[in-house]
Write a structure and sequence with these properties.
The complex is a heterodimer of chains A (about 425) and B (about 280). Chain A is mostly helical and about 425 residues long. Chain A has two domains: about 60 residues; about 325 residues, ABC transporter involved in vitamin B12 uptake, BtuC (Orthogonal Bundle), CATH 1.10.3470. Helix content of chain A is about 65%, strand content about 0%. Chain A has 16 helices and two strands. In chain A, a hairpin with a 5-residue loop joins strand 1 and strand 2. The longest helix of chain A is centred in the last third of the chain and has 27 residues. Chain A is globular, with a radius of gyration of 25 Å. The two termini of chain A are about 40 Å apart. The radius of gyration of chain B is 20 Å and the shape is globular. In chain B, a hairpin with a 2-residue loop joins strand 1 and strand 2. Chain B folds into two domains: about 180 residues, P-loop containing nucleotide triphosphate hydrolases (Rossmann fold); about 90 residues, P-loop containing nucleotide triphosphate hydrolases (Rossmann fold), CATH 3.40.50.300. The two termini of chain B are about 20 Å apart. In chain B, helix 3 packs parallel to helix 7 and helix 6 crosses helix 7. Chain B is of the alpha/beta class and about 280 residues long. Classes of the chains: A mainly alpha (about 425), B alpha/beta (about 280). Chains A and B meet through helix 10, helix 11 and helix 12 of A and helix 2, helix 3, helix 4 and helix 6 of B.
Chain lengths: ~425, ~280
Amino acid sequence: MIPAAALRDAGLAALVALGLFAPLVGLRTDVSPTGGLFLRTRWADVAIVCGIVFLGRLVLSLWLGQRGLRPSTGPGPWTARLERAGAFVAPVLLGLAVVLPFIPGIGRYELDIGILVLTYVMLGWGLNIVVGLAGLLDLGYVAFYAIGAYSYALLAQYFGLSFWVCLPLAGILAAFWGVLLGFPVLRLRGDYLAIVTLAFGEIIRVVLINWVGLTGGPNGIGGIPRPSFFGLPFSMEGGPGTFAGFFGLEPSPTHRVIFLYYLILGLALLTNWVTIRLRRQPLGRAWEALREDEIACRALGINVTTTKLSAFALGAMFGGFAGAFFATRQAFVSPESFTFIESAIILAIVVLGGLGSQVGVAIAALVMIGGFELFRDLDEWRMLVFGGAMVAIMVLRPRGLVGTRTPTVALGKKRAISGDLVSEGHG
Amino acid sequence: MRDGDRPRRDMILEVAGLTMRFGGLVAVDTVSFTAMRGEITALIGPNGAGKTTVFNCITGFYRPSDGAIRLHVPGALPVELHALAGHNIARAGVARSFQNIRLFPGMTALENLLIAQHNTLMAASGWGIGAVLGLSRYPRAEREAIEKARRWLDATRLLERADDPAGSLPYGAQRRLEIARAMCTEPSLLCLDEPAAGLNPRESDELARLLLEIRAGGTSILLIEHDMGVVMRISDRVVVLDHGKLIAADAPAAVRADPRVIAAYLGVDDPEETAA
């Protein structure tokens, strides 16, 4: 773009910014010392913001004009580099995740963030089965997370079952509800499916709030037993029957955090392993085929009903596992933890990472959840930075960080398939 | 008609009194015809004659309003196709292609052919569970499936494009891949909806050769086609529909000479119909 046009373009952007920020930033109501409200103007701040927009737009358009940077779903230079590094990035991330608790300087706070990020990585991978592979837009994924959490909480409370017994039960119960949700929505596609799954998520939450006799209603369930290390509880007493005593260690509260960290790492890796294996097998391929063309699937003798249900059930099962983990980590569950925003965050992780891409989802979870914690110092600007980053990713990479699809099988060398060809599913 | 000359056991598909109504519109009106085993049967007719509707009834995409469709299997009772769900018709041995190509565009040609073998592979993988745990005979089944896919890729001259996404293949290649994909389900009856549409003459010739090869391999073919050159050259029998009614079913030469068929295609008043 020639400089004059770029200047004009930047001026226009600044004008739009002025219109937007003059009321938003420039005018502010404050409480005066006398207790009344008064209008404070901040025109200097507006000028700074508009100046930033002007300069930013100018630099961007000059740079774009030079580099010819365009939105792309294809395997551009960026993807090619990532792909070359891909064989290397995933093991490095995995290695880092495994040794994280023992890196000097990593304290309890960092480990807690690690646990949080891994929980979302696991949820992202679980939802990736439903949305990324089978192409069924599920806006109520948090319901399965809630079912898993409450399953563990209630089974532990009423029957005194241990975490290790409850974990598979929570997964099975969530999968059961996944199938139950799946049945009525099988015929729905696209927007209709999204609305019904959204409603399902809300129904579960509303039931949890209102069934006070069973779930405690809005007060939630407290005192959920913490997981034990295969029967050895984590206790500060350090007796022979505890984890620290058995291994002859100094009792420390960090032990439990490290254990929880490895527990969720193991669960997340299980999700990943199952997904990667299934993707190379007929069931996973049928999911992807379903995303590409349901009618063709039917003409090839694929039972669309059971294939869809299996995707729902499996995705729900991993959501249930994550829920059980959440309950044991918090030792407290309440319906507040399972609002729609959770579903939205998990879906955003999957979409930003790239539908169907395991590495992409992991990176997106790390960036979204970890980044969110990292920018805590920015206070109210955090959301702005965050929203900006999401918009930037979607503008430059409309199909997510990893917008390409890797074939599951090849006669020769596997080549990434451009996102333009890969269907997003019709619901 | 030659139907009477043939023994009944040679029949593969029997359409009896097939009627399909969409509200007040009768798209197919009591149509009966048969397709013989090891033959190529062509279904022709002017636009809007109801050919694709008949096809969709046979392949389970529509449920017929009336009538029966039976697939005859040697040494077994005939399969009542009109009562089966869509995916079970494919399992019974009827494969189809689509008028507007329906491949899986984001998946490679090879993957497309492996999806066609889903049911065999799924059984071998222990419905997913065995294969995830690495406990089943799945790897061998997959090698065999890839081998079969390779044979069909070779037969359709797509071997060097095996690892390319189906959506990036040229049009003619996509048509061939769709036929290869249908053949990978090991059908006894292959239904093709306008396979020569949009092909140039050379590609049409190749298609005709491919269909003859498939017939030689023992698969019967039912085909809708507008390219009369292809139809007359390769078909053993031609079934003609017009306005949802069957007007002729005979050998290609006889159909070509049939005045009613000519009338239907050229829009000339049929003397018999005018009389009646």
